[in-house]
Automatic annotation (TrEMBL):
This is Porin. It holds the Pfam family BBP2. Keywords: Signal. InterPro entries: BBP2. Residues 1-18 form the signal peptide.
Length: 337
């Protein structure tokens, strides 16, 4: 009986110890779909905003992604696989059926304050991200759509203090997610302070590169229910590029519903006067049911200097003729797990 009791106690202790061990492997992801109809243009004429993703009328698929993360004591790895049109566009892959690698990287926690990451990860530039579950607005901004989506290379994150952080990166040029056949590389940096981030990026601008970009991303809790997000950026590639700013006021009316506005001004700069610019206003509701988020959205983009040519999108009116504005209603459903 004594031996049996000792064996039972040992087994019980083993089970309890195993339950106390943290999980090494985690799986997460999201699936989204949407319905979109244009209020100022026919749905069958190919009208679309000049931004990435959500460019189809009628019922459409966004993307599905699954993220596998394995965390060891000092090192780990992340593999993020996506399918669907949004994932294909974000990874510059024309195949919307087969699995696509969105992120794949390994990391090493050198110390409590230093982490090295090697592989491919989503960009640090901009207020928005690829996966719609992490954005308040379902459609994306011109600033986010014009910058890089991902980087392939090596980065180092430093926790300088409780309030300051620093990231330094060496990567392939803009959205060159595989081998850089040009033999050139890009540099990136991010300085963080109390949730405000100043981002810098530079490549030569050759071979379709981005050139130089400085970007500010941040926000402030103005009250328990009211948050104001901010994004501003300036890009220059051999004297040409873009600049703009966006505000994201968001108000939570209850635990399950919030309403938010994105107001954005975006313009090109370079040779010539009166280059095209656009002012885009997006009003989004967000209703949460467990892990499901429903997002009804109204969007109106107004273009200036139409005579200089459309620089993004396809703005047409109800007769199919070129127009200076485009309006749409979108209903999106996003499930996260």
């Amino acid at each position: 009986m004594k031996k049996l009791f000792t064996l039972s106690a040992l087994l019980l202790a083993t089970v309890v110890f195993a339950q106390d061990e943290p999980k090494k492997l985690s799986v997460s992801g999201s699936v989204d779909a949407y319905y979109q109809t244009y209020l100022s243009a026919p749905d069958n004429e190919g009208a679309n905003f000049g931004t990435a993703f959500a460019k189809k009328s009628g019922f459409a698929l966004g993307m599905g992604n699954v993220i596998f993360a394995y965390e060891g004591e000092k090192a780990g790895a992340v593999l993020d696989l996506v399918v669907g049109p949004r994932g294909a566009e974000a990874t510059f892959n024309s195949d919307i059926v087969d699995g696509i690698v969105n992120q794949a990287y390994v990391y090493w926690n050198v110390s409590d304050k230093t982490t090295l990451t090697f592989g491919r990860w989503n960009t640090f530039l901009g207020y928005e991200v690829i996966a719609p579950a992490a954005n308040f607005n379902y459609s994306t901004s011109y600033l986010f759509s014009s910058g890089p989506f991902s980087h392939m290379g090596l980065k180092a994150d430093f926790a300088l203090s409780d309030d300051f952080s620093l990231m330094l990166a060496v990567t392939n040029p803009w959205d060159t997610n595989d081998t850089s056949f040009s033999g050139e590389y890009a540099l990136g940096a991010q300085l963080g302070f109390y949730g405000q981030f100043l981002n810098l990026y530079y490549d030569s601008g050759n071979h379709g590169g981005l050139g130089f970009e400085i970007d500010y991303t941040g926000g402030f809790d103005l009250s328990d229910a009211f948050f104001l997000g901010i994004n501003a950026a300036y890009n220059d590639n051999d004297g040409e590029g873009f600049y703009g700013a966006a505000l994201y006021p968001q108000f939570a009316t209850s635990d399950s519903f919030s309403i938010g506005l994105r107001g954005e001004y975006f313009a090109l700069h370079g040779d010539g006067d009166d280059l095209p610019s656009v002012f885009a206003t997006t009003l989004t509701g967000s209703y949460t049911i467990e892990n499901l988020i429903l997002k009804p959205e109204l969007r109106l983009d107004a273009l200036s200097n139409q005579d200089d040519g459309m620089f993004y999108g396809s703005f047409i009116d109800n007769d199919g003729a070129p127009a200076n504005s485009l309006a749409a209603f979108t209903l999106a459903a996003i499930y996260s797990f």
